[in-house]
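Rotation project, supervised by the postdoc (A.L.). Task for the rotation student: set up a whole-complex structure prediction and record inputs and outputs verbatim in this book. Inputs entered:
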Amino acid sequence: MRLLTRTEEIILLSIWRLGENAYGITIREEVGKATGEEWPLGAVYPFLSRLHKGGYVQTITSRSTPERGGRHKIMYRLTESGREALAEVQQVNTRAWDGISPFAFRKST
Amino acid sequence: MKKPASPPRLALRLLELFSGWEDDYGAAGDFEEYFRALAAEGGIRRARRACWRQVIAAFPGYLKNIIIWSDAMLKSYFKIAVRNLRKHKGYSFINIAGLAAGMACALFILLWVQDELSYDRFHANAETLYRLEQETDAPHGKFRHFSMPYSLGPILKAEIPEVRDTTRTAAPGSLLVRYGENAFFENKVLAVDPQIFQMFTFPLLKGDPAIALSRPGSLVITEDMAKKYFGSVDPIGRTVTFNDAHAFTVTGVLKNIPPNSTLSFDMLVPFDFMKILGQYDDLLMHNAIPTYVRLQARCDIAVVGGKITRLVGDRALAGIQADPAQMKMLESSPEIRRRFEDYSRSRVFILMPLVDINLFDSRMAIKNIYTYSALALFVLLIACINFMNLATARSAGRAKEIGLRKVIGAQWKSLVGQFYGESILTAFLAGTTSLILVILLFPAFNVLSGKSMSLPVLWSGKFLLGMLVVTLFTGIVAGSYPALFLSSFQPVKVLQGRLGGGAKSALFRKTLVVLQFGLSIFLLIGMGVVSRQVDYMRNKNLGYDKEQLIYLPMRDKAPLSYAVFKDRLLRNPRILGVTAVRHPPTSIFGSSEVADWDGRNPDLRFKISFASVDFDYPETLKIGMAAGRPFSRTFATDLRRAFMVNEEVPKLMGLDAASAVGKRFNFRGYEGTIVGVMKNFHYQTVRNAIEPLAVVVDPKDFRYAVVRLTAGQIPASLENVKETWRQVFPQYPLEYRFFDEDFEQMYRKDERMGTILKVFSAMAVLIACLGLFGLASYTAEQRTKEIGVRKILGASSPGIVLLLSKEFAKWVLAANLLAWPVAYFLMRSWLRSYAYNAGIAWWLFAAASAGALVIALVTVGYQALRAASANPANSLKYE
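Outputs recorded:
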């Protein structure tokens, strides 16, 4: 299995964190919190599309609400392979960072 | 309840495009929700702005994606496009040649527009510089001019805080400038305030701008003038004389004034020179000189204008009340008082932005910009139509390629991209060709436009950007129809050989041909009307004989010796007549609204032009008399106490010519009687209507000598005039002009318009014919089999030529219906600006249409003839 890219990883994590409430807007906000910079609104969708095609997320079409002007809402949830991919990334990360002090790359003051 | 606001649709669409949502990932709904949340929080406007920001933010990523992902596809498209161009060399040539010609037109116009817009932009402070103007009531509505009182500039600087600087620019008239042996008359000398160098960007090559004009007797000259008078000697510190009386020392040398400057001069002297010449007064009632101001940054010009209007209103009255002589005059009659009050009330001051002067002032460059841009756009459009026509015509040939691409999995979007790519590639090839054309034709363009641009203009960023825009515009407009039309073929039908929409696309092609020829016919008619008008003006009977007439300006003290000059000239049998006038005799301007005569209706408002002339005026110019007699020395009263008028004056008086003779007439301080009525003649450009004119003999006003030479002996008689001039006026250089030259100059603008129209309509017709040629050859090709069958069944060659030509002829005829009304109304409104016009002749319409038809038939006929004379056996042998 190929490793996720960094961005895909962050988006998948955001979807996991959001649980039942993951859709375009909330995902963008969550990603923004994690990376510390605001993303253009349109930027998350190509990634969602890719993740969807890769089978990492499933979509659930929920009913529309009035504040969406009658348009429907697509919710995202991790699939089993999504979870596995995250687990693998986590493992790789932990191993890669093993034994490195959190202060190792801070500027010494 | 109001419908809740939704985000701008266009923004949504663009975002969709940029973000590449191929499937539905709920983005549209999310976007809507995002928008509403923002709108609820910070108002709809803020939300809209935020939406657009999102669109913009998404764009760079989009571009990157296109480039990265479509690299391979682009290569394939490019290859196909090049192959296509090479395979159909004939069509490609027609396309590229047509587009190149159209684009060259557009580029020339672009250059011209760029030059017009660049006027006065080179000043560093251009944005805060203004020319003062005033508007007053006049008999024919508002009158706007830019003559200001001599003393106004400094007053404004002292009194109005928004005014940062002012400079007055007074022209002392023609001056005899002498440096040793070199003596010339200079017309472009300006007396200005020293702040001119702080306000305007006129860089000094030598000298210090801060002090160059601060002392009386200092003189700043341009590079050209320095060369003219001093050659290679350093001019700084050298002294020249003006009119052999005033000494000026050169303190600075200016870089030459660029041609796109409103303010233009050869020499600058301190403003005090006007006072020395005695051409100065303090009266705020008196308008005399142009004045420029520089405002503080960010001022409301309407407010400042209002302040100036009030200030001048108050001060002008105070100035008159302080002066007993003026006050006495004002009190002398209620009519003068009333006129004074009317005038003061109606006087409004306006600040005209310097950078707008060229566009909106008398030259009205903006009008020409619109006209010529429209013309260029027409020609470009005709070229684009060619491209569209040929592309749709050939669509059948390409349908299989498209069908196959679709079957393999090409998407609609990428096909559109492919066709746009092809047309843009063609446009770029055409663009390169047109650039070469522009470079080759550049000198001709300079002559035609009357500009002096140099080739480096072509490499300026603005022009290249403009060229890119023109190219992309052409590519996109020309490619749009093929792209949208061809890409919508259904592969199943295409590959089966059933091509839908044939009739529809044929109709579309016809419409385009009609449009093309409509535009061409319109341009042909326009060309006809303009050149007829020019001919008309040129051949119009002026009311006098302008051939063999010259005039010589007499400057400085020369008029004092005029009598001697005239006397000596007339001793020569080759000189047929000599007279003198106060104004340049081909353009007598200067009129008054005050005159009095027996039985004048006090409510009548009028304007009468005025000129002082010498005896022999009508005789020398050969102006006919309608009644009465010309001035004559035998009557002592003819000096200053007699008038000759033109036929308009009796009309104004409500009399016929004969009964006006002998009537008392007071005008311009002269009191006398009308002794003669001259037949109407054009004393101004033929553009203007002949207005009332009254002339009087007053030797103190003679400024121009008018001399009639003998026909057939012009060089010899001219030599006589020169010799006599040298004898009588040894100290003054001789200048002279033929009346003819002046008239040629008056027509130059119209002639230029005529020539430009000729070029454009030739281009339009040529390009349209190229397209028609391509279309006809295509049609002939398509119908080869039909023609073969017809011939076998017994059709004659002429019959087939007729069959093919008829179709095209029909379209060209239909084009007339489009072109005639448009041409009629536009040309009528153009002709309205001429008091005397040749009108619109019906045969012009017929000629333009017939011309277009003949050209079209010749173009089509060649192809038709070829198709008709082919051996049917060849075309049918594969069936």
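Student's summary: The longest helix of chain B spans residues 44-87.
Supervisor addendum: The mean pLDDT of chain B is 83.
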